[in-house]
Amino acid sequence: MKRDEDVAVVGAGLAGCLLACYLARRGRRVTMYERRADPRTGAAERGRSINLALSERGLDALRRIGLAEVALADALPMRGRMIHPVQGELDFQPYSSDQDRAINSISRGSLNQALLDAALAAGVEVHFEHTLVGLAPATGDLRFETPAGDRKATAAVVFGTDGAGSAVRGQLLGHGLLTEELDFLDYGYKELTIPARDGQFALDPGALHIWPRGTSMMIALPNPDRSFTCTLFWPTGGVSSFASLASPAAIEQHFATHYPDVPALAPDLVDDYRRNPVGLLGTVRCAPWQAHGRVCLLGDAAHAIVPFYGQGANCAFEDVVWLDHCLEETGDDWSHALPLFEQRRREHTEAIAEMALDNFVEMRDRVASPAYQLRKQVEHG
Ligand code: FAD
């Protein structure tokens, strides 16, 4: 039987797990449904942003419910950018004159696991291999595809934390309850690996490494196993694009010319390049985020952004805190709290979406330009 406090959270990614923790803490009975298999029984997905940069914005949301320490257990602080030019010296550009300020390189899988464990410990019920395929927004009736066939459920309140390609958003769209705009870049991304060398980091682990190349860009973040995960951003089609490197020789030649320090650092470069998929990058804009005061989108499902500011997950975590404040202020009245959350939060997520697009130009281009170097020299004395 559906009770007033029953909440369904669709999508047990970063946003869904943190949201479930916060709601359970408010005394809600939370059931989380996740398309993937239980991560405790399977291998991590390949080529899907293995690590991410966690900044103060996201840490604050974790700290409020005592999860910052566990999230930071294996984190590697990055205090600045290390620029790799085609020729010449590496150039370290600190993020702040305060040496204690850093962004943290964190394993997405470990963070997701830590949040899932916290949700389970808080009494959240989790159903894996449940793919949402139907939703009646007015009643909260849900339909999932599972390996054992279709399964129905119902909840007083439903959250869509099912990412950029959100099925919950799709259902609201299908019921004529929202409009959406999906703005894909003509750039994609591919992950490559720089393994540990003689058991040590092959590059400085205290920096986010950037190879700015104008039409393309590569970044690398350190991992606790002393490897680096590199993300190469490049157009998806055209003469100079992922599609243009069709043979091992072409891949080797391209890196030798444009990323000359990389081949010696990445012995599996050609294999990685050929095996790992090209991921899409885009911005999701939709309105409204909620319907009937009982179905609400949060995190990437509501406002996915391009990753160049490293703020998508941080922003999703911040959503949870703002929603929590709205629930507090409205005495847990969903029909008031959900519209209030959207009304307050939207302008901030729209701003970060624009900043993330701007930062692409900054990272691939301006960080290497003489004007930028001069400005930084002045700023840092
Ligand atoms: P997701 O992480 O996408 O989770 C959605 C969950 O829903 C998944 O578990 C999925 O399996 C599940 N799901 C999907 N469909 C269904 C369905 N029909 N039924 C049930 N479950 C479903 N952010 C940062 O803050 N810092 C970074 O450094 C950073 N780097 C990034 C680098 C790259 C290359 C990319 C692509 C993104 C990066 N991001 C970064 C953004 C960050 O990954 C996202 O903002 C974040 O994952 C959003 O979390 P989420 O929980 O909203 O969505």
From TrEMBL:
Function statement: Catalyzes the hydroxylation of L-kynurenine (L-Kyn) to form 3-hydroxy-L-kynurenine (L-3OHKyn). Required for synthesis of quinolinic acid.
Segments traversing the membrane: 6-25
Entry-linked InterPro entries: FAD-bd, FAD/NAD-bd_sf, Kynurenine_monooxygenase
Keyword Cytoplasm in record: no
GO molecular function: FAD binding; kynurenine 3-monooxygenase activity
Coiled-coil intervals: none
Identification of the protein by name: Kynurenine 3-monooxygenase
Pfam families in the cross-refs: FAD_binding_3
Species for this entry: Natronosporangium hydrolyticum
Family: Belongs to the aromatic-ring hydroxylase family. KMO subfamily.
Keyword RNA-binding: no
Keywords for this protein: FAD, Flavoprotein, Membrane, Monooxygenase, NADP, Oxidoreductase, Pyridine nucleotide biosynthesis, Transmembrane, Transmembrane helix
Domain FAD-binding: 6-352
Catalytic activity: L-kynurenine + NADPH + O2 + H(+) = 3-hydroxy-L-kynurenine + NADP(+) + H2O
Cofactor dependency: FAD
EC code: 1.14.13.9
Pathway it works in: Cofactor biosynthesis; NAD(+) biosynthesis; quinolinate from L-kynurenine: step 1/3
Entry's Gene Ontology BP terms: anthranilate metabolic process; kynurenine metabolic process; L-tryptophan catabolic process; NAD+ biosynthetic process; quinolinate biosynthetic process
